[in-house]
Specification:
By secondary structure, the chain is of the alpha+beta class. It has helices at 23-36, 38-52, 59-64, 77-94, 109-129, 133-147, 194-200, 204-210, 214-222, 237-247, 285-291, 333-358, 400-418, 438-448, 453-474, 480-491, 520-532, 539-554, 559-562, 569-587, 600-618, 625-650, 656-686, 701-748; strands at 100-104, 149-153, 163-164, 170-171, 185-193, 225-226, 258-268, 274-280, 300-308, 315-319, 363-365, 377-379, 382-384, 389-391, 507-511. The protein is elongated and about 150 Å long.
Length: 749
C-alpha cells in the first residue's frame, strides 16, 4: 500500500493526471500521517488534561503508596487563563455593528456606499442567524488558543457554511509550510453517523454522479462498529482517553452509537487544483487486494478530482503565530504554560499538605506504647496524654512563606512569557493607602481583557479570508438563507446584476474591526472621548458616535431601542443640489464639468427634468425668439453634458437597469431637442448676415446649431445601439446556458 503521492515518472518523464489513483493509496497516505502524529497527540492530551483540571498525581498510585491523604487537586489556573485569553477574541467577533465591511468597487460614489452598507447588514444578519455560527467560531478560537491553530473546513462547495475542526482531526505532513499555497496533501480524521452517510446516497444515481461509491457506502454502514478508545475516529488514543475523563464517561460496545470512521484526504494536483477522497479508516487495504478476486477498490467511499481551485476553498486555519514557519511548529497557550502550571500545581498541593500537618499536634510514640490507647483523657479543664507518648515542641517543617515566594515568582514568569494579564495587585486591608479611584480600577480591569495589536491584526487578517470565502459562496449559493440574503438586498435597492459569479470581483469584503483591542471597558472609554468631541464631526459621524456608544452600554442588538434609524437623504440631496447649480450655470452659457466622483444618476435626473421643462416652455411659443434662443443654447450645452454622465453610468455594471431607463429618456429628450434646435436654426438662417449680404456665413450661428443637432442625435443613437448590443449578448448567454443545462440533463440520464 503506497503512502506517497504519484510523481513524474523518472524514466518516461510522464506527468500523472492524478496524484492519487485509488482509495488504497489515499488510505496509505492518511495512515502514515496518522502514525506520525502519535507523539504530538500525546502532547496535546497532556495539554488538554491541564486545561480540564487533571490532578498532578495519579490517585491510584497514591493509594498504593498509602499516601491518599495528600492534597491532589488542580486549581484550574490554566483554564482561567484560557478563559481570560478567549474573552477578547470573542469580543472581536461580537461587538461590531456588522460582521463585515463591504466595499462595492463600481458605481456612483454615494450610491455604492449605501449599497455596500445594505449588503454588509443583510450578510451579517444571515450569518448571525445561522444556529451553528457561534459554536463553530468559538471552537475554532479555543483550539487556536489551546494548540496553536483552529482549523475550519468548507465541506460543501455549494454552501457558504463551514465547520470548525479540532486540532487533533487535521493531519499535516512534517515540514508543511504555514502558507497554504505550498501545501501538498492533508488528511482529516472524521466519522459519519449512519443516518448522515445514508442520506448522501439516498438518491443513488445522483450520488454516483457526484462521486459517491454507493455500494461501498452501504457496505460500510452494514459493517459499522461502535467507536472505542483504542480506535478513535477523530483523535489519537491518548486524546480520546482525556476526552472520556473530561466528559465523565467511558466508551463501551453496548452504549455507544455506531459510526463509520473515515479519512478525508485532500491533495494538490500538478495543475494546481485540489482533489479529494473519503476512505475507510479501518478497512485493511492489503486484505482487500488478496481476497477481492475482481480487484475492486472497496476502501473508497467518495472521490472528486480537481473540484477546488485552491486550498482557500477547502481548509483555512486560525493560527496563534507562525512558529518556525511550519504548520506543525505552531504551538498555543497550552505548551507555553504547561511546565509552569505543572510545577505550580504540585507546589500548591505540597503547601496544602504542609499546612494541614503543621496545624496538628505532633507527638512521638515510644517503642512499647499501644496505638489503640492513643487517646487524650479529659479530666475537667485538663487533657492528659496517655503513657508512652511525648509532645514534640520543635518545628520539623520549613517556613511555608518560602514556598509561596517560589509560587509567586513562577506566576510572574508565566505572565511575562505568555503575555497574560493576570491581576496580581496585592490586596492588603492593612494598607490604608490602597484606595483607588473608579478610573484607576477601570483602567486596570481594561488591561485584563484585551490582547495585543499584533495578535489582533493577525487574527483579523485570517478572519478576512474566511469572510471573503463565505461571502463569495453566498452570492451564488442555492441555499434558502443565501437566496433570502440576496432578495433582501435587491428589495433595498441593490442591483440584481451584481449577485453573480462576475459580482465576486465587484465586492471587497473584510472583517469589521472592533474598537478597544477586545476590551469593552477600553471601547467605552474611547466612545466617551468621541462623545465629548462630537462637535468636530458631521451629521453622519455624530450619529455613528451615538450608535457606537449606546452599543457599548447595552449591546449591538438593542441600539434600535434607543436610536432612530439613520436618515440617508442628506447623501442624495448634495448631488441633486449641485446638479441644480450646474443647470443655472449652463443656462447662462457656462459649461459644467463631469467627473468620476459625482453620483451620475441624480445628475442625469435633474438635467433631464431641466431640459424637458425648457422644451415644454417653448411649445406653442415659436415666435418668441428670445425664449427660443435661451432654450436652444441651454440644450446645446446640457445635451453633451448628459452624454458624458451616461458614459460613466454605462461603465458601471451595477447600474445596467438604470442605464437602460436613462438612455430611453435621453433619446426622447434628444428627439424633442432636435425639433427645437431645427426651429432655432431656421430662425437664424432667415436673418440677414451682419455684412448686409443677405447670406449667412458658412460658420454662422445656424451652422453651429445644426452641428449641435447632429452631435446630439449621434450620441442618442450610439447609446441606443449599445443597449441593443448588450441585449443581444444577454440573449446569447441565455441560449448557451440553456444548451449546457440540456446537455447536463442528457448526461445524467
Amino acid at each position: 500500500m503506497s503512502s506517497e503521492l504519484e510523481n513524474v515518472d523518472p524514466i518516461t518523464l510522464e506527468v500523472p493526471s492524478r496524484r492519487v489513483k485509488s482509495g488504497d493509496q489515499a488510505q496509505g497516505i492518511a495512515k502514515r500521517l496518522d502514525e506520525l502524529d502519535d507523539e504530538a497527540s500525546d502532547r496535546r492530551a497532556a495539554v488538554d488534561g491541564m486545561f480540564d483540571g487533571n490532578p498532578p498525581y495519579q490517585s491510584s498510585k497514591l493509594r498504593i503508596n498509602q499516601q491518599s491523604y495528600r492534597a491532589n487537586f488542580n486549581p484550574r489556573e490554566a483554564e482561567a487563563m484560557l478563559d481570560q485569553k478567549h474573552i477578547p477574541y470573542y469580543d472581536l467577533l461580537s461587538e461590531t455593528p456588522e460582521l463585515v465591511d463591504v466595499d462595492l468597487k463600481a458605481g456612483d460614489p454615494y450610491q455604492k456606499d449605501r449599497w455596500s452598507r445594505t449588503v454588509a447588514e443583510h450578510f451579517s444578519d444571515m450569518v448571525r442567524e445561522w444556529p451553528e455560527w457561534e459554536q463553530h467560531m468559538q471552537l475554532s478560537q479555543l483550539q487556536m488558543l489551546r494548540h496553536g491553530i483552529g482549523p475550519i473546513i468548507f465541506e460543501d462547495k455549494k454552501s457558504w457554511k463551514f465547520k470548525a475542526l479540532k486540532r487533533s482531526q487535521v493531519l499535516f505532513p512534517p515540514m508543511t509550510p504555514v502558507a497554504d499555497g505550498k501545501w501538498s496533501v492533508i488528511a482529516i480524521r472524521a466519522e459519519y453517523p449512519l443516518h448522515e452517510l445514508m442520506e448522501k446516497v439516498s438518491n443513488e444515481s445522483v450520488a454516483a454522479t457526484l462521486g459517491w461509491n454507493v455500494a461501498n457506502v452501504k457496505r460500510a454502514i452494514a459493517t459499522a462498529t461502535p467507536r472505542t478508545s483504542e480506535d478513535d475516529a477523530i483523535s489519537g488514543p491518548t486524546e480520546r482517553s482525556q476526552t472520556e475523563i473530561r466528559e465523565n464517561y467511558f466508551l463501551s460496545d453496548s452504549t455507544v452509537t455506531k459510526t463509520v470512521s473515515v479519512f478525508i484526504v485532500y491533495w494538490r494536483e500538478f495543475d494546481g487544483k485540489i482533489s479529494w477522497t473519503i476512505v475507510l479508516k479501518s478497512f485493511n487495504a492489503d486484505e482487500n487486494k488478496e481476497n477481492n478476486e475482481d480487484k475492486i477498490d472497496r476502501t473508497s467511499l467518495f472521490f472528486s478530482p480537481s473540484e477546488f481551485e485552491n486550498w482557500e476553498e477547502v481548509l483555512q486555519v486560525f493560527s496563534l503565530g507562525v512558529g518556525d514557519g511550519t504548520i506543525n511548529g505552531i504551538f498555543g497557550l497550552g505548551k507555553k504554560i504547561f511546565p509552569h502550571i505543572t510545577v505550580n500545581t504540585r507546589l500548591l498541593c505540597q503547601l496544602v499538605d504542609n499546612a494541614f500537618i503543621s496545624s496538628t499536634i505532633l507527638v512521638q510514640r515510644n517503642a512499647d506504647a499501644d496505638l489503640e490507647g492513643a487517646n487524650l483523657i479529659q479530666a475537667g479543664p485538663m487533657s492528659i496524654l496517655p503513657s508512652g507518648y511525648s509532645i514534640q515542641t520543635g518545628q520539623i517543617f520549613s517556613d511555608p512563606t518560602r514556598g509561596l515566594e517560589v509560587k509567586t515568582h513562577l506566576s510572574n514568569i508565566l505572565v511575562s512569557n505568555t503575555g497574560s494579564n493576570q491581576n496580581t495587585r496585592p490586596s492588603t486591608p492593612s494598607n490604608k493607602r490602597d484606595v483607588r479611584t473608579a478610573t484607576e480600577i477601570e483602567a486596570e480591569d481594561a488591561k485584563l481583557t484585551r490582547i495585543g495589536k499584533n495578535e489582533i491584526n493577525r487574527y483579523y487578517s485570517q478572519l478576512d479570508r474566511i469572510y471573503r470565502q463565505m461571502f463569495n459562496r453566498a452570492l451564488t449559493s442555492t441555499e434558502d438563507d443565501a437566496k433570502e440574503f440576496r432578495q433582501l438586498c435587491i428589495l433595498d435597492g441593490v442591483p440584481k446584476e451584481i449577485f453573480s459569479k462576475a459580482g465576486i470581483k465587484v465586492f471587497k469584503v473584510r472583517a469589521m474591526r472592533a474598537v478597544g483591542s477586545g476590551s469593552f471597558l477600553q471601547r467605552r472609554h474611547i466612545y466617551r472621548e468621541l462623545l465629548g468631541n462630537q462637535g468636530l464631526f458631521g451629521e453622519r459621524g455624530r450619529y455613528n458616535i451615538k450608535e457606537d456608544y449606546v452599543a457599548s452600554l447595552v449591546g449591538q442588538s438593542k441600539v434600535a431601542r434607543y436610536l432612530e434609524a439613520r436618515d440617508v437623504s442628506d447623501e442624495i440631496t448634495a448631488d441633486h443640489s449641485f446638479a441644480v447649480l450646474e443647470n443655472s450655470a449652463m443656462k447662462q452659457g457656462a459649461p459644467a464639468l463631469v467627473v468620476s466622483t459625482q453620483w451620475h444618476v441624480p445628475h442625469m435626473q435633474v438635467h433631464l427634468k431641466a431640459a424637458t421643462d425648457g422644451i415644454n416652455s417653448i411649445q406653442g411659443n415659436w415666435d418668441n425668439v428670445e425664449l427660443l434662443a435661451e432654450v436652444s443654447n441651454f440644450l446645446m450645452i446640457v445635451g453633451p453634458h448628459m452624454a458624458k454622465h451616461l458614459e460613466f453610468i454605462a461603465s458601471d455594471p451595477t447600474r445596467e437597469q438604470e442605464y437602460r431607463v436613462l438612455v430611453q429618456q435621453f433619446n426622447q429628450v434628444a428627439q424633442l431637442s432636435d425639433e427645437v434646435l431645427n426651429q432655432y436654426s431656421q430662425k437664424l438662417k432667415a436673418e440677414p448676415a451682419p455684412d448686409g449680404s443677405g447670406q449667412e456665413g458658412e460658420q454662422g450661428e445656424g451652422k453651429q446649431v445644426d452641428q449641435a443637432r447632429q452631435a446630439l442625435s449621434q450620441e442618442a443613437e450610439r447609446h441606443a445601439q449599445q443597449i441593443r448590443h448588450r441585449e443581444e449578448d444577454h440573449q446569447q448567454k441565455l441560449r448557451i446556458a440553456e444548451e449546457e443545462k440540456a446537455q447536463e440533463i442528457a448526461n445524467e440520464n
